[in-house]
Amino acid sequence: MCSCSPAPRLHTLRAALDSFESRLDALNTAYGDAQWRKYLGRATAAEINALEAERSVLLLDDEIFAFVMNHRADVDGDACLARRLALVHRALLEARATAPREIYELRNRIDRQIVAFKPIVAGETLSRAEQRDMLRKDPDRARRKSAWLALGPLAATVEKDVLELMRRRNRIAQSLGCGDYPSLALSLAGLDRQMVERLFAELTDATDVPYRAFLDRAASVLGLADPSPAARHSSPVTRHLAEHPERSERASPVTLLRPWDLTFAVDRLAALPDAPFPKSEIVSASLALAEGLGLDRAAHKVRVDFADIPYGGLCFGVHPPDDVRILANPRDGHAYYSTMFHEFGHALHNRHVNPPSPILRDEPGPFNEGQACTLQRFAADPDWLATRRGLDRRAIDSYRRGWAQTMLVRFRTLMGLATFEYAAYATLALDPAADLDLIPLYCETMERYTLVSWSEADGVGWADNPFWTSYPIYLQNYVVAEAIASRTHGALRREFRALFANSDVGEWLAEHYWRPAATIEWQDKIARATGGPLSAQALIADLQIADC
Prior knowledge:
4% strand
């Protein structure tokens, strides 16, 4: 933790930062509360836009930006002040792309449509959780396809606006000297395209064999293997191998799996039964996990509400460490417990952040998601699974492979979505005025990563994904986060061996990751805590068990 110098000549600079941070903190608290209430139907569009306008006035103030730029080097060795100035500068730079009225009004308009939309399948209006459960559980393939396409009307409705929002973000990023918006957003998160693409390539190559084996097994179990020459010639697997002849010896049988089969296949082949994971116990199980890690006092002060949101869960650090809230959309099943543990990972991180100034609470997405994924890993811990009634040892032992297979499908999907998002912005940057149809790009990119056929003829849409609108250039963070989780759990096992129900583990996380907050860059925190820089190797080792 840093300590601020008392040098009198720096008092004016410190006072100016104190004033700015105090004003921003108050606005962020009101804004976080409004965002939480929005998903519960308790905040109006006018209220949210009014708060956006107030934040915009503060964050886009040219005098404040100039003041920070002029004083960044004028801190006389005061590490705390230098860090605060650097983080304020980052916040102001990020605001150039998020706080203009032309951005937030359009973003909020799209977001309202996404939140309000209800999917309809076979004439029945469903909640988002019901639609996701149909993809996971329904044995009727035609119904699964209908559920998968049920967001198509939403995609068609918002597509024009989402494209315009992307164009506007690109224009702002280019005015700041970046080629496109992804370049700006990744740099603000402490990432870059080269690093992300290298991570994606390493994961894709290292997990190629187990992922193909999973597709083969899924196709066989679901009766969707197709050995016909015509199918073999046209399949994404064959095209992928043609592009990478060095992998030809790994060729797998051609399958007829489609996107609406993947979640169902994971549930059939890799998931645990639902019965030991009832929705009614999901919060108490999360609190019990925290208690075993010595984090119960922090966990019990987290507010949890259920709502039909377009995400599995959301955590709102309304005013850390005191006001932290979770919104979730659970049903029965292990996958929902895993998501709740993820959100409690965010919440416990927020509950331990209490630095000397508000700006030092703000940490980039990759690190924040890394904390969530680190706690989420306990949902796959055999010792924790053994606490669930009705789950036998055989199921627990086999789930190590099931977890890895689940993660392979998740990573392929995330990497495809993130790569498509980068390509969409790059395409728009080349010809901003063009009337673009991104469906071919979307299908090609997703097919390349998932190795199942995505067809424009199915009526697939792309623009309904809420991440494009509300969390742009964020999806790669979940992949980076799993690399953080693997490296962290490796360090914890070297230190403590047994992790579940070990209060030393909770203290280690608080000491090394949470209490320092943003006083230290996130990559440095990970390197110091785990003994070396972040890489994909620990994650790749964890995933190799999918092939056993």
